[in-house]
């Protein structure tokens, strides 16, 4: 399993310090929640934050774009140093094209679906992507409760990947803690985003270890 701490729950006044902490404690990648106050009702980071983080960590940076016009931001985040750009299916009428744009920039391409969006809406783009992110909360805020019905969606996505002989990583985001992680793992998740559970703990290493322990 891979763990991707979400810096949404880090201490923004000491962002580099918190990133260093999770890197030393064995995080596999960093999850950057980009919100524009329009696609979701919260406002967070722009490309300058990704650019500032790039030299302070060797962890891969994945950018979760919760913005209304994802196409407008792909180039800036790619140039800022994003390793993966995750685009919401609900944010664009031109999903295939935006993902092509990400790939052309030499960045791993991922697609994201909200809890209410069916897997069928991804049918045509699955062969294109390196990663599929299943939201296990409604996007916008950290610290929300894991939506248990999404476990079945992950399971169906896992079966679909096998049936179509595809190779994308399956990721979950929202409400992941030592109580919820196992169900998602058993359904076939490869990458677990965890924000409040990791950064809200006294010891980020213990928190990540408890996630790894819980799936054993
Ligand atoms: O995309 C997100 C919210 O839209 C965050 O990545 C997610 O909520 C992580 O936070 P937590 O682990 O606290 O639920
Ligand atoms: Co996220």
TrEMBL record:
Q: Which residues bind a divalent metal cation?
A: 31, 33, 64, 173
Instruction: Copy out the cofactor comment.
Output: Binds 1 divalent metal cation per subunit.
Q: Which reaction does it catalyse?
A: D-ribulose 5-phosphate = D-xylulose 5-phosphate
- Give the UniProt family note: Belongs to the ribulose-phosphate 3-epimerase family.
Q: Which UniProt keywords apply?
A: Carbohydrate metabolism, Cobalt, Isomerase, Manganese, Metal-binding, Zinc
* Enzyme Commission designation: 5.1.3.1
Question: Could you name the Gene Ontology cellular component terms for this entry?
Answer: cytoplasm
Name the Gene Ontology biological process terms.
pentose catabolic process; pentose-phosphate shunt
Q: In which pathway does it act?
A: Carbohydrate degradation
Q: Which CDD domains match?
A: RPE
Protein name in the entry: Ribulose-phosphate 3-epimerase
GO MF terms here are: D-ribulose-phosphate 3-epimerase activity; metal ion binding
Q: Which InterPro entries match?
A: Aldolase_TIM (IPR013785), Ribul_P_3_epim (IPR026019), Ribul_P_3_epim-like (IPR000056), RibuloseP-bd_barrel (IPR011060)
Any single Pfam family the record assigns to this protein: Ribul_P_3_epim
Transmembrane annotation, as ranges: none
Cofactor requirements of the protein: Fe(2+); Zn(2+); Co(2+); a divalent metal cation
Kindly report, in one word, the top-level EC class recorded for this enzyme.
isomerase
The UniProt function text for this chain reads: Catalyzes the reversible epimerization of D-ribulose 5-phosphate to D-xylulose 5-phosphate.
Active site annotation, chain numbering: 33 (proton acceptor), 173 (proton donor)
Organism of derivation: Lacticaseibacillus paracasei NRIC 0644
Residues holding substrate = 6, 64, 140-143, 173-175, 195-196
Q: Gene3D superfamilies per the record?
A: Aldolase class I
């Amino acid at each position: 399993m891979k763990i991707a701490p979400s810096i949404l729950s880090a201490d923004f006044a000491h962002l580099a310090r918190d990133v260093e902490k999770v890197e030393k404690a064995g995080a596999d990648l960093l999850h950057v929640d980009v919100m524009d106050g329009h696609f979701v009702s919260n406002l967070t980071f722009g490309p300058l934050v990704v650019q500032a983080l790039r030299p302070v960590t060797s962890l891969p940076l994945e950018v979760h774009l919760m913005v209304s016009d994802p196409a407008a931001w792909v180039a800036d985040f790619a140039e800022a140093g994003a390793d993966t750009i995750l685009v919401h299916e609900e944010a664009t009428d031109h999903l295939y094209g935006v993902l092509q744009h990400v790939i052309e920039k030499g960045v791993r391409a991922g697609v994201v679906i909200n809890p209410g969006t069916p897997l069928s809406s991804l049918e045509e783009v699955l062969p294109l992507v390196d990663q599929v992110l299943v939201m296990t909360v409604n996007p916008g805020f950290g610290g929300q409760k894991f939506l248990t019905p999404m476990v079945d969606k992950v399971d169906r996505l896992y079966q679909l990947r096998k049936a179509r002989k595809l190779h994308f990583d399956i990721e979950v985001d929202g409400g992941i803690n030592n109580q919820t992680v196992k169900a998602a793992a058993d359904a076939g998740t490869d990458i677990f985003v965890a924000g409040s559970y990791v950064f809200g703990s006294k010891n980020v290493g213990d928190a990540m270890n408890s996630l790894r322990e819980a799936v054993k």
